[in-house]
Fold this sequence. Notes:
167 residues, 42% helix, flat
Amino acid sequence: MAENQQAAAGSDNQNQPQFALQRIYVKDLSFESPNSPVVFQEQWKPQVNLDLNTSHNKVSDNQYEVVLSLTVTAKVGEKVAYIVEIQQGGVFLVQGIEGQQLGQMLGAYCPTILFPYAREAIDGVVNKGSFPALMLAPVNFDAIYAQALKRKQEEAAGEAKEEQQTH
């Protein structure tokens, strides 16, 4: 009887939502300082631009790779001081989570986990390039994901409206 209860409890655990970080890694990293050493003579008041993107793909039944891509461009006046590009990857176990909740997990929650690692790698490489430390401000991936979702819904609604008008 006790064995049957344990077996039943074990099968319930398989249906429970599960999430686990399995690995974090740098997939790609590049640093360019096209105007060094001249740029070191300029007064250091950089204009910093950050571009970011996320992507994910299914690795196996319950494993997903999420990649956070960041490009940081620092300019002093018109001169590019440096450009850093990083693809910070992570492998996540996601089980029992589907649909919109899965999209939120892969599009916002996982990038939030990856961001501090990417930020640290960027800061380290900028420092090795002999530039002052760069601490990127936190990013609200939930808000970015919500905006992207809204934009997709608006585009889909616009396409449906166009299709109705042509028929």
